[in-house]
């Protein structure tokens, strides 16, 4: 990646000096600074930065007006707000004005570097997910089965086809959020679910609710472990899993997402199960 060129927008000489030192110590090129709307317009036109750090409180203007002015000049420039002010309403307005991230003063250098890398490395990060996410999830499933049931599995019939399909009986959906949003889906028959839950519980399940709970937690562990591995590959991914959603019954159809996914069939000692994983190129908004 080419050296990232950054403009600092702040009316405090102390804050500018602190940010400049932090940024330059971490290999970024600070190409200018500004403390007013007119100065912002001038330095953006002259220096053509990749990214701007933006204070929210400025004389005669604010960070959102400056952000809009920057994007009128070049909509590809990323803006990270760094402000002492941070509440739900102002963050909502920042999102609406296409701010890429929002950090609160006093700024932590590691947090700032992670934010910049996450904002600027979208293409590289998405390529990492495209190449490595499905193998990592498969390995997590294999490892999870082995560790929790002391058995092995084999994969077959791996394919990438996005279409609606009918569930075999029980489907667990795990939403994934972070730099990119995605999902992991595990689908299996009621018989396979019963067999796996019995192995997990080391006894016969008492009822259907216990089977559902066991399979949901099993899927949650698989997805969480896989996301942890991917985060270790690049912490800018910031992947986290949402609580599982369980669909079960007769004639349940699972709709295809609007992004590419990959599917594999796993043959286990308990029956077949399907794993499906994919990530959207569209970024999740920061929180």
TrEMBL record:
InterPro entries per record: Bact_response_regulator, CheC-like_sf, CheX-like_dom, CheY-like_superfamily, Sig_transdc_resp-reg_receiver
Entry-annotated residues carrying 4-aspartylphosphate: 55
Xref: PROSITE patterns: RESPONSE_REGULATORY
Sections of the chain in a coiled coil: none
Pfam families xrefs: CheX, Response_reg
Membrane-spanning residues: none
GO biological process: chemotaxis; phosphorelay signal transduction system
Record domain Response regulatory: where: 5-120
Keywords associated with the record: Chemotaxis, Phosphoprotein
Function: May play the central regulatory role in sporulation. It may be an element of the effector pathway responsible for the activation of sporulation genes in response to nutritional stress. Spo0A may act in concert with spo0H (a sigma factor) to control the expression of some genes that are critical to the sporulation process.
PANTHER family tied to this protein: RESPONSE REGULATORY DOMAIN-CONTAINING PROTEIN, STRESS RESPONSE REGULATOR PROTEIN 1
Name of this protein: Stage 0 sporulation protein A homolog
Lineage: Bacteria, Bacillati, Bacillota, Clostridia, Lachnospirales
